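Hi P.,

Sorry for the delay on this. The queue was packed all week, but I finally got your sequence through. Input first:
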Amino acid sequence: MRLISLIIVAASLVLTPLSAEAQSAGNARRIGYLGPPPSSGGLFEAFHQGLRELGYIEGQNIIIEYRYTGLGRDVDTRLPLLAAELVRLKPEVLVVSIDQAALAAKSATTTIPIVMVNVGDPIGNGLIASLARPGGNITGRSRMAPESTAKSLEILKEAVPRAVRVAVLSNPRNPLHPELLKNANQVAGSLRVQLEIVKTETPNQLESNFSSMAKQRIGALLVLPDGMFYFNRTQIADLALKHRVPSMFSTTELSEGGWLMAYSPSSIDNYRLVARHVDKILKGAKPADLPVEQPTRFELLINLKTAKALGLTIPQSLLQRADEIVQ
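Then the structure:
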C-alpha cells in the first residue's frame, strides 16, 4: 500500500505542472498571421518583443497561427486561400503584412479584427476610410510616407552626383505610386535630374526593362515601394548590379545582392509597435475606432561592397548618417 501511495504522489507531482500548462494553453488568446516569412531583418523578433512588453508570451497566454505568403510568383493566387484558411480557425485578431495580404484578409472576413503592418497605402487600396477613423474591421500601422520618396532621390543624387537621368521603377497597378512620383518630380528639378518612369507590372518585365535602361544610359535607379518589387527585390538588385546601375531601394529588409542603398520607414519599429493594436483589440477595442499610425522613424542602409563594384565613393556625410553599412 505504501508503494502504491508513493506512486500516486509522484504521479501527481509530475502531472500537476503539465495540467497547469495545458490549462494555460487552453485559455490562451489566438491570433493569426498572414504575410511574408521571417527574414534576417528580425521583424518577427520585434513583433514578439512588442507582445512581451504587453504581457503576451507565445505558447503560454497567446497562440499565433502562421500562414506565409512565400516568395514565388503565385503569391496573388495563394493569398486568398491562406486568408480563408486562417479565418476558418476563428482567431480573435488577424495580423497581416504587405498590401496583398491585407486585401486578401479583407475579402475573407468582415467580422474578425484585422491589424495591418507595413501596408503602403491603406486608403488608396480601399482598406480603410481614413487614418483617424478607419471604419470597418481594419486598423494597424501603415508605411505610407510619400515625402520619403523625395528624400530617397536626394540621397541617391548625393551618392551618385554625376547621375543626370534617373530611372524610377513604378508599378501602374499601385494606387500610391502617382503620389510618390509627384513628390519625386517636385525635387527633380532642383537636383538637376531627369526622371524616366519605368512601368513594371509583372516580374517577367524586369529583364527587358533593365536592358532598356542600359541602352538609355540611365545614371541611377529609384525603386518605389511595392509588394511585387519587394518579393522580387533580390532579382532587381542583381539586375541593377549586372547593368551597373546604382540603385536605391524603398525597403531596408535586404541582405545579399547588388543593391547600393535603401531608405525607408523602420520595419522593426512597425512590427514592434503594432503589438499595441493587437493588445487593445484583445481588451475589447473596435478596429473602427483605433487610428492607423504612420511611421516616425526612417533607416538608411548603404552597401559599400556594391559601391566598390560600381566604382563609386560614397561621401563621408552619407556614411555618417547611415543606420547600417554593409562592407
